[in-house]
Specification:
One of its GO terms (cellular component) is cytosol. By secondary structure, the protein is α/β, with parallel strands linked by helices. The protein has 10 helices and 11 strands. Bound molecules: guanine.
Length: 287
């Protein structure tokens, strides 16, 4: 047996970025520069890094970027009134409120307050519903990025067994819908799943999105499977900060057919898909 093909998410994302840049140029020429508003409440260090990268990438792509950093003590009412203003702002096409929010703020309520047409995260109940019904939704960025990477390896997914480990609203659930749409047989596993290793061994497509460092071992993987690692876990390694995935990379590499690294796999795709959603939202609004 040979080593798994590495799925170079950074390279795929770079290709997307250059396509997106020309799409933005065309819109700018028509006087329709797409605008993305990014809202960060509090100072969670991981969220700050994500938000900084999102803003940097959107500026590089030629988008107009609106940045709102609010203190962790911000009231739900104040956040909702900011969202109201962004909903009515004509130069804002996309609104992203970075999660998690402080515990005194009801994230569901905030998500539902965003204009569904500007909901570039795809978290609004209207977009969640449309994704499940199969038409016209803004699709959550990380699942969308996973699908682009999977389809890059194999374009016909019909009949394949897909196992997603993790049932979050941000990744696991929407990804299940996308794989179902491709006619995969989809299983969503979680903390109460019995005999996770045996379930994973049946997967032609295995997606790990649980936030548990190296949970998925090499001997849980079906030979030749496509393995997508969504995990971003911070770990100390020989005194240095290191990112590790939910998959034991070395173990998986010896068995899988194709595998995403961490970092440089799904992460860069998430941001590229956010920009794509923002451009889509702008095109639809100015349609
Ligand atoms: N927190 C973790 N992932 C995401 C995401 O995709 N969007 C937002 N808004 N917050 C997140």
């Amino acid at each position: 047996t040979s080593e798994a093909t590495l799925i170079d998410g950074a390279a795929v994302a770079a290709g997307l970025h250059s396509e997106l840049r020309s799409a933005v140029e065309n819109l700018v020429e028509r006087g329709l520069t797409p605008g993305l508003a990014v809202v960060l409440v509090g100072n969670d260090p991981a969220s700050s890094v994500y938000v900084r990268n999102k803003i940097r990438r959107s500026v590089e792509a030629g988008l107009r970027s609106f940045h709102h950093e609010l203190p962790s003590t911000t009231s739900e009412t104040d956040l909702l009134s900011l969202i109201d203003r962004l909903n009515s702002a004509h130069d804002v096409d996309g609104i992203l409120v970075q999660l998690p929010l402080p515990s005194h703020i009801d994230a569901q309520k905030v998500t539902a307050a965003i204009d569904p047409a500007k909901d570039v995260d795809g978290f609004h109940p209207m977009n969640v519903g449309k994704l499940s019904l199969g038409g016209g939704a803004l699709v959550p960025c990380t699942p969308l990025g996973c699908m682009l990477l999977i389809k890059g390896v194999r374009s016909q997914l019909a009949g394949l067994n897909a196992v997603i480990v993790g049932r979050s609203n941000i990744v696991g659930k929407p990804l299940a819908q996308l794989l179902l749409r491709e006619n995969c047989t989809v299983t969503v596993a979680h903390s109460r799943t019995e005999d996770l290793p045996s379930l994973c061994r049946r997967a032609d497509i295995l997606v790990a999105a649980v936030g548990q460092p190296e949970l998925i071992r090499g001997d849980w993987i079906k030979p030749g499977a496509i393995v997508i690692d969504v995990g971003i876990n911070r770990a100390e390694h020989e005194g240095r900060q290191k990112l590790i995935g939910d998959v034991d990379f070395a173990g998986a590499r010896a068995v899988a057919g194709a595998l995403t690294p961490v970092p440089g796999g799904v992460g860069p795709m998430t941001i590229a898909c956010l920009l794509r959603n923002t451009i889509d939202a702008a095109c639809r609004r100015h349609g």
